[in-house]
């Protein structure tokens, strides 16, 4: 298992896009990665947009980003909530500062915008937040997956296979 020594934070909040959380989590776990679901509260059940539940392993306050190799931000409506937590913004800024892998898909770009890390970056997202991304200083492109250094972005659920493959491959390189 090529990713057995890797640890990833998967952020969670109600109304996450079910596939955009679970597809990467399951694929990374399949390759041996420890993926912790991290939310405002530990051991809390969060519910996705389509009703799929996920229980957090840890609370924001219990996590030290130094202990992790990467962070995943799912889309859905959860990013609009996640970006309001100072701890989440601190995690994303930390990962960016230390060139640790950041994965974002769909509306997850909102979290990166609020963390103020997109200036000069090449990214993609759901077209619905294209203006938000460009207003934050990013160059937005309409591609299934965009890799800019340690930042991997994707548009929507149909892009999950190439997105998660790119994320896993980049994680293996670190």
TrEMBL record:
Source species, domain of life: Bacteria
Keyword match Transmembrane helix: no
Statement: the UniProt record of this protein carries the keyword Zinc-finger: no
UniProt keywords, alphabetically: Glutamine amidotransferase
Boundaries of every DJ-1/PfpI domain copy: 6-167
Family listed: Belongs to the peptidase C56 family.
Protein name, per record: Type 1 glutamine amidotransferase
Biological source species: Aquibacillus salsiterrae
